[in-house]
Design brief:
With 248 residues, this protein is mostly helical. 84% of the residues lie in helices and 0% in strands. It is globular, with a radius of gyration of 22 Å.
Length: 248
């Protein structure tokens, strides 16, 4: 029947459209997570630069307002994370987790924990994306759930950016005059931002690693096939981490 043929031709396109929307929403959540991390790091670095006169150039760079570039950065990251997909994101998460483990083991040899905050940004977006993909797999209202997650992530990113702008513009004055509650709170607890970020990242990557393993194992038809994949990969990464430890 012509009408049935017409409707049938629309079904694959409709399914593809929903899949694209889901991928974009997952990418938006990951991009907003990266934006929150960058904003909180900016707040912490600016507060620290006020206590060290030799970091005045860094302070001025942090104060530079980039109102157009910040939303553009989120949009580009959203597109990249949507294109990457959950399987590639899973591999990125596992690779970063091993590099992070190597860096943490090297702390006694002079490595700085702050390096992880710079290295983990894209991996954080991949971790949030593949974590959502795994947790919402087969959910009856997957798109609605992703929409709510994206809305919440967008609000958090917007508030974090507003906090960063407020701190870089007014913190120096407000912390001296002691009449802004936000700046007084940061004056008392701002040094704890790295600890907060470490805990949040540890939880995020813990969930993302489990999701990544589950997503990769989903493509194997048997346990033997999964073992043939994971054994050489684990050995190669173990040798890589061992080599990196030797170089440090």
């Amino acid at each position: 029947h012509p009408k049935m043929f017409f409707l049938g031709s629309w079904v694959p396109g409709l399914a593809w459209g929903w899949a694209l929307l889901d991928a974009l929403l997952q990418g938006l959540v990951g991009a907003c997570g990266i934006s929150v991390l960058c904003s909180l790091l900016k707040v912490y670095l600016y507060i620290q630069s006020l206590n060290e006169p030799e970091r005045q150039a860094e302070k001025e760079a942090l104060r530079a307002q980039r109102r157009v570039l910040e939303p553009l950065h989120v949009a580009v990251l959203m597109g990249v994370l949507a294109v990457v997909g959950s399987r590639v994101a899973a591999l990125v998460v596992l690779e970063f987790s091993l590099r992070a483990l190597s860096t943490l083991l090297s702390l006694r040899k002079g490595a700085h924990r702050s390096q992880l905050y710079l290295l983990c940004q894209f991996s954080l977006g991949c971790g949030l994306s593949c974590g959502l993909s795994f947790l919402l797999e087969g959910a009856p209202h997957r798109t609605c759930s992703l929409g709510l997650a994206a809305g919440l992530a967008g609000l958090l990113a917007a508030y974090a950016r507003r906090l960063a702008r407020h701190v870089c513009t007014l913190y120096e004055l407000h912390s001296r005059e002691r009449y802004c509650g936000v700046c007084i709170l940061l004056l008392a607890t701002g040094h704890g931002i790295p600890r907060l970020l470490r805990r949040a990242l540890a939880i995020t990557f813990g969930v993302a690693d489990l999701a990544a393993v589950a997503l990769i194992n989903r493509d194997f038809l048997s346990t033997a096939e999964a073992i043939r994949f994971w054994t050489p990969l684990t050995l190669c990464y173990a040798l890589l981490v061992s080599y990196m430890q030797g170089q440090k």
